[in-house]
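User: Second chain of the day. Same drill as before.
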Amino acid sequence: MDDVQPENQITSLPFSAIPNIPPPPEDYTPHRLQHTPLIIDNGSTNLRWGFATSSEPRFGSNIVTKYRERKTNYPLMLFGDAVEVESGAKTQAKTPWEGDVLLNFDALENALDYALVQLGIDTPTVEHPVLMTERLCSPVHSRALTSELMFELYSVPSLAYCVDGIMSFYQNDQSTGNSFTSDGLVVSFNTASTSVIPILNGKGIISHAKRIPWGASQATDYLLKLIQMKYPNFPTRVSVAQANWMFREFCSVSPDYLSLLRSFEDPSVLRSHQKIIQFPFLPTPNSSNGGATGNGDEKTEEELARVADRRREQGRKLQEIAARNRMEKLQQKESDLAYLLSLRDNYSPSVSKREWDRKLKEEGFDDEEIFEETLKKLEADVKKARKKEREKEGGSAVGDGDDVDEPMEEPSFPLVDIPDADLDPSSLLEKRKQKLLKAGYEARLRARKERELKAIKDREEKAEREKQKEIEEKLDSEAREVDLEGWAKKLRGEQETLMVRIKERAKRRAAMNDRKSAAKQERMKNIANLAAGDERVAGGSGTSKKGGKGTGKGVSRGTGKGRKGNAEDMFGADDADWAIYRKINTTTMVSSDEEEDLAQLQQVEQRLLTYDPTFTTQHTHASILSQRSALLNAFRPAYEEGDVAGHNRIHLTTERCRVCEAWFTPAIAGVDSAGLGEVIQNILSRFNEEEKARLIKNVFLTGSPSQIPGIAPRLYSALRPLLPPEMPIKIRQAGDPALDAWKGMARFATMDEQFGKVGMSKAEYEEMGGERLKRWWGSNWNGGF
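Assistant: Same format as last time:
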């Protein structure tokens, strides 16, 4: 990558924090026999517990595991952050929740045991009324097992259930007076879901409440999938915990997601919006120290110039050495040629045929024919080498006597026309040689004549093409002068067609490089079928394994499948047999087609640039490709091969807002559900205008994910088009989104006299069952009485 990343955009991935040592258990003496209410906020991420008189709850991650200590073999139960200490125990960790449903009651029992121990409760039973949270519209099965656990195991005197979002709204109630009569619309962001609950006159209208299946855990998983798709070959494994940290630290909500995406068409805007996460890595001797250039040592411009000069000097020396070697080889060939010519001219006419053959064998030639072939090849090599030297020196490519089609001296063949009866045996042998030489000479004459005819034909075709081109240019000029706009529109259509064709060809080429693509798998299937067909071919008309020759009988044409016995392999005799090769070997054809398309595209764009004033260089194919390359480089920068630090970085750009936008458009994450704006519109449609105005005037956001930056303005922009202009919208957030639910429960248990009436006693539990609960303004309605 050319540009170095700004340091303020790079954030190092934090190491796993060492879990804090939990505080010692509370002193139970102030609460003994006092029946102080016990408040439990059973969240799917964190469990918060404590006495109602406490100012702050105790809390920990709602996860437990059983672990056997290695040295003493003593069984232990780990809760919360302590699970992270032991890797062996971490693999067996369990949470009471499966998504948004309470299912694992063994884990819930272990978590409650830990909570009660931390509160210092040392009595055989829990002599405190309990107020506990449950999800909106919680299944009665989960409630029944929870009630059974609380009444049968801990023997609590009473148990009441409430919805955490409503209690957080109660904690942030700004009305005066003892009674709770506020109106509002609670949007509760939870780990695995998001709930919208209308409240009128201090009572939750659960029958009109809605829930969408998108929460912080789904957002984290979605961010992790986007990262894995963007970096399929990332050096290290990105864990869910790391993705959750990136979600909490860097993700935000855009007030106008589509406008933000359109602004990212500018690579500089996209690059300014990115956040870079540096993962740990082991530096190598040739790797960078964290820079983006990938060079181990930073060099000055003078050093780089010296290196370039040194490389140019080395290249010049190599060229000189290569030229000297070529000249030495040429001189050696010329010397050999002169020696062989002198041998033929001076020695051959003065000796007999036998002495000449003996001399040739001494020189390393088997016979005179091989000598002549060697001599001709050497002459051709010398002529070719001289021609190349003249081209390098800037001379003509064809010198005197160097034309390949120069007039050929007609050799004489005196023995060819003499009858065999008039010749002795040695002359007969010479006659046969002269016949072969004559046949070769005549073949060369025919080839030369064919070349001459082909050259004449090519010149005629070239002249015809030039003439046709002149006619087309004349017609094109006339059409351009008559209707420039229509002419330009036609050429722009041709340009678009050619660019689409080139793009589709590039897609096919990329698909062929991906072994998992359908095109690659189809090609491998065809090759496998060919190989299977070749393996089924047995025998044929050739020599058998035992040395016997085939008889040629029973010859038949195989089709490539099921050829058996001595059937001859006639694959290829039919033109249809070659379709499979054309199907799997498309590289050459694609390359030639692409070159033609690129040349044609260049001509079209040149004509448009010349005559169309509205067509600029920014509309050309090269400019469009460069813009796309710049955008892709801003989306995922490419680092050099040796830059280990760069290859261990994750660039978050569009993912930062896309993940959070799923709360308002779940379809972009593949969730078949309405977004928050549509859900609130559906809820408000069930109320009259006066009630609707009371609800929308107090939209309350709670839950830890509600702290995501920009979520309140985004919700406002989603609601404003759905409501009348004169209807005011006021959105506010909880003072402490994570703890306000517990604090609201503690406030209700200590300050509201109604708390003693909402709990279900042990006798009522035994009479009605664990599925039932007392219905009140902060509880669910299903199973209520």
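Residues 371 and 658 are 80 Å apart (CA to CA).

User: Great, on to the next one.
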